[in-house]
Amino acid sequence: MTDFVYFITSDKIGSQDPDLGARLMYTFFLKLVQAVHLPAHILLMERGVLLLSESLCLDPIKVLEGRGVEILACQTCLDLYENAPSSLSTGEGYREGGIFILRCARPGHGSYYGIKERMGAGKVSDMPDIIEAMQTAGKVIHL
Questions:
Q1: What is the spatial distance between Cα 39 and Cα 139, in angstroms, rounded to a whole number?
Q2: Which of 4, 82, 85, 94 is the most buried (most CB within 10 A)?
Q3: Calpha distance 14→136 (Å, rounded)
Q4: Dihedral (C-alpha) 81, 21, 15, 115: value to the nearest 10 degrees?
Q5: φ, ψ (nearest 5 deg) of residue 98
Q6: What is the CATH number of the domain that holds 46?
Q7: Distance between CA 21 and CA 10 in Å, rounded?
C-alpha cells in the first residue's frame, strides 16, 4: 500500500453522460484492482455511497477490500439515501403553476430504501474518521 486515498463523491465519473459516467467508474475500479499501488482508503460520500449497493463496481470494491483497502462510507449520506426515493434524490419532477412538484418512486421501485442493509462492502463511518483518513494520507485524490 502507498500513502494515498481516493475520495469519491459520485457513482459516476463526469456529469455529461450518465451511462458513460457509470461505465467509466466501473472501468476505474476494474483497473484499480490490477494496479501495483493500492490506496490505503477509499472514502465514499454523497452519491459515492451508492457504489456499495447493487452497483457493477461492487465486485471490484470487494476485491480491493479483501486486499486491505479500507472502504469508508459516510453515515450521513447513507442516512439520506436510506429513506429517499431515487427520484427525490435526483430532483426529477415537473413544474405546475410555477411550483416544482417532485415525483417520488414507490419503495422498491427505483428507490434507495434499505441501502444500509444492501451494502455489500465497506463500513459505515463518520466524518471524524473520514477526516482522519484524509489528514494522515500523503495525497487525497478526488474523483
A1: 10
A2: 85
A3: 27
A4: 0
A5: 80, 0
A6: 3.40.1260.10
A7: 10
Query: Which residue type does 128 have?
Result: P
The amino acid present at 91, given as its one-letter code, is G
* Residue-wise pLDDT tens digits, 103-139: 444 344 445 657 888 889 999 999 999 999 999 999 9
Closest CA relative to residue 84, chosen from 62, 116, 37: 116
The model scores a pTM over 0.90: no
Euclidean distance between CA atoms 63 and 69, whole angstroms: 9
Residue 107 within a domain: no
Strands (DSSP E) along the chain, which ranges?
4-8, 41-44, 70-74, 93-96, 99-102, 123-125, 139-142
3-state SS of 91-126?
CCEEEECCEEEECCCCCCCCECCCCCCCCCCCEEEC
93 lies in some domain: no
Q: Which helix (H) or strand (E) holds 33?
A: helix 18-34
